[in-house]
Amino acid sequence: MPRGCELITFAKNQDERGVLIALEGESDEVPFPIERVYYISSVPSGCRRGFHAHEDLEQVLICVCGSVSILVDDGCSQDTVVLSGCDRGLYIGPMVWREMFSFTEGAVLVVLASRHYDAADYLADYNEFKRLVAGAAAEETEE
Ligand code: T46
Questions:
Q1: Distance 116 CA to ligand 1 centre (A)
Q2: What residues make up the domain containing 107?
Q3: What CATH number does residue 45 fall under?
């Protein structure tokens, strides 16, 4: 898995009535205060979303219905995670390029985010993203 990404399994409260999953901010499951929740649905077949990284934002993605593939790329290595099941979350930290695709019909992707929406936090140019990652790595090596 690329740097800054982690698959998380949530604890289930399951009994004969079904399943209840509770997520709290600043916990093992969601390692930041939750400031925003949004969800993505009704994605047409074959449609790809994302194509950006965030400079600062942390998020946990949960596909509560259906499944979706998520490509994550830290600028050095890439992986594709197939996310399905309401007890599975994908943590994505800052400076990770993401693309979401292969949404199944009726899929719903819920996202917990550490910050309010800020268009200025998006890096939508892949070359610029790679340049910033390489610059940060060079600074780390110098230290
Ligand atoms: C991400 C992936 C997983 C808002 O007004 N408020 C919001 O909180 C968000 C997230 C989006 N928007 C607006 C901005 C655009 O006009 O909704 C529109 C669609 O957003 P976007 O094209 O950025 O959607 P995705 O699916 O490409 O990316 C989204 C998130 O934006 C992004 O942070 O990590 O989901």
A1: 11
A2: 5-142
A3: 2.60.120.10
Distance 121 CA to ligand 1 centre (A): 11
pTM for the full model? Answer: 0.96
38 lines ligand 1 (CB under 6 A): yes
Q: Whose CA is nearest to atom 23 of ligand 1?
A: 50
CB 112 within 8 A of CB 59: yes
Tell me how many domains the chain contains. 1
Q: What is the mean pLDDT of the chain?
A: 96
Residue from 3, 12, 36, 52 carrying the catalytic annotation: 52
Angle at 98 between CA 94 and CA 100, to 5 degrees: 145
ipTM over 0.90: yes
